[in-house]
Amino acid sequence: MKKTTILQALLAELENDLHRLKAANVDASAGATSSEARAETKWDTCGLESSYLARGHAMQFKKLAADVCELRAFPVLAFAGKPIGQGALVEVEQSGDKMLFFLLPCGGGVELTVEGRDVTVITPESPVGAALLDKKQGDTYSFRAGSTGKILSVA
Questions:
Q1: HSE-up of residue 57 (Cα within 13 Å, Cβ side)
Q2: Which of 113, 98, 149, 111 is closest to 128 using CA atoms?
Q3: Which residue among 8, 19, 37, 38 has the highest number of C-beta atoms inside a 10 angstrom radius?
Q4: Closest CA to 86 of 138, 127, 121, 137
Q5: Which residues of the chain have pLDDT under 50?
Q6: Alpha helix (H) residue ranges in the chain
Q7: CA triplet 139, 118, 110: central angle to 5 degrees?
Q8: What is the greatest pairwise CA distance in the chain?
């Protein structure tokens, strides 16, 4: 499995999220400025709440847009025989299950299915990402209270 294929699938997923956030922002902004949202009493906060929601969507959009830009420029490097770092595709066995992690600077938590395999994007800040950093194929790792795994392959 090529890392560039996984990266393209991740970018497509994040770009879809950008479109959803933009639409949500437009809806919330319209709700905040609608004549129907005008407060009729001091306890009527519908318009104010919509404006907070619109601001939250805008902040999420800005962060996600920056992540997409960073991933578009991210160099795909080979890690075979090298310590795990950002850009490594790592297959592990954890709790009897085989899992595939793609360690990237952002986009953590996104789960993709690429070429019939499930791939989870993790970041160095995540518990598993921090545990895998600087390890090599064949090493074991642990995180949280006693959870362990074995690194099967690194690409």
A1: 21
A2: 149
A3: 37
A4: 121
A5: none
A6: 3-33, 46-72, 127-132
A7: 95
A8: 67
Q: What is the pLDDT of residues 94-113, one digit of tens each?
A: 989 999 999 999 999 999 99
Q: Closest by alpha carbon to 79, among 5, 1, 153?
A: 153
Q: Which two tokens stand for residue 37?
A: 């949202």
List the domain boundaries for the chain. 3-72, 89-154
Per-residue pLDDT, 50: 82
Question: Does residue 36 sit in helix, strand or coil?
Answer: helix
Structure token pair of residue 82 = 């090298």
Q: Residue 65: count other Cβ atoms within 10 Å of its Cβ.
A: 15
Q: Report yes or no: 106 and 125 within 8 Å, Cβ to Cβ.
A: no
pLDDT at residue number 39? 67
State the residue for tokens 């299915």: 113
Q: 89-154 in CATH: which number?
A: 3.10.50
**Cβ atoms of 153 and 3 closer than 8 Å:** no
